[in-house]
Write a structure and sequence with these properties.
This is Glyceraldehyde 3-phosphate dehydrogenase. It comes from Paraburkholderia piptadeniae. It is found in: Membrane. This protein has one helix at residues 4-9, and strands at 15-21, 37-47, 57-69, 74-87, 111-122, 127-139, 151-163, 168-177, 180-187. The chain is mainly beta.
């Protein structure tokens, strides 16, 4: 019987990646730390034995971010993210719920979706406080969408505008989800 490490060493992944950024929707006022605007992107990764890999599978990802100024100092951020896969993919390449406060890869399946809301309060021109919450779900192979567990997270953070001319902010986010806490050092927006 082969060990799991032997199985991993016998797998080669070769992918062709196609990225289609919806540039008409990239209306962000700053790419690092937006205060208004929208960004949307679609990514297709095609892994094929014809490219030199050992498995054939596809992973498609679509994401969209929107920042809405509610007042001069309050900014509402909205994020929707989905990843979908098909074929003979290895366990480490399958989609997972991607939320602050949720361990990467803890909730994974053939498909995964996440939505997040963030409210930012610009206290001064350089200092901001923010709160966020999100929900996600991984489903498809082991559970149907309705049977899959909802994963929720909540957190707060702050940002300091370190490079005013470039619009680059740094800060810390602290987040919590079921049975786990997380601490992040952020440069710019948490959404990339």
């Amino acid at each position: 019987m082969l060990s799991p490490y032997a199985l991993l060493s016998s797998v080669t992944i070769a992918t062709l990646t196609i990225i289609a950024t919806v540039s008409l929707d990239d209306s962000r006022d700053n790419i690092f730390y937006p205060g208004k605007g929208t960004f949307a992107e679609f990514v297709a990764q095609l892994a094929r034995t014809a490219f030199g890999g050992t498995q054939d599978y596809d992973v498609y990802a679509a994401r969209s971010y929107t920042w809405l100024p509610l007042t001069r100092t309050l900014i509402l951020g909205l994020r929707v993210d989905g990843k979908f896969s098909s074929g003979d993919f290895p366990f480490y390449a399958q989609p997972y719920v991607d939320l602050r406060g949720v361990q990467k890869g803890r909730y994974q399946d053939r498909d995964a979706m996440a939505a997040e809301v963030e409210l930012r309060w610009d206290l001064t021109p350089r200092w901001s406080l923010l709160g966020f919450t999100g929900i996600g779900k991984a489903y498809g192979r082991w559970h149907s969408f309705s049977e899959a567990q909802n994963v929720q997270s909540v957190g707060a953070g702050f940002r300091y505008l370190i490079a005013r001319k470039l619009g680059v902010a740094i800060g810390i986010d602290v987040a919590h989800s079921k049975d786990q806490n997380a601490f992040y050092i952020q440069v710019g927006s948490a959404w990339r």
